[in-house]
Fold:
Amino acid sequence: MAGAVAGGLFNAFAFAGAGYLFKMFDKNGYAKEAHRHNLAMENLTAEREKYLEEVTDRRNKIAQLKSELAEANKDINSTNKSLELTRRISELTRKAMPRKPRLSNHYKPSIEMEEYTAIFGLITGGVVGGAADLML
Structure:
């Protein structure tokens, strides 16, 4: 910014000095040259304004697109995470459930114990059946 101001001041002094010399040597030519210079400055100012507007628009558009890209990346990451979770759920549901542990997998009663269990079952069944018959 300071460079632009210093450059502008230098150009103004240079033009003023050159204008003074021009005026000293050619009085009519100086008025035409000053008019040409003023038109050039107006054109330069208009072009600078247009340039700044275009640069600002470009920067705003880039910022907007970067923002949209960040949002899209969030969506992509979210979608990827959802797909990964879905894949893991599907993988688990396709596998057979593990067998429920049972005592019979670890313990086999002796023959005597099986006989006593059968006798107890018959007695209990008879008692329960008799009680049911009485209730009905």
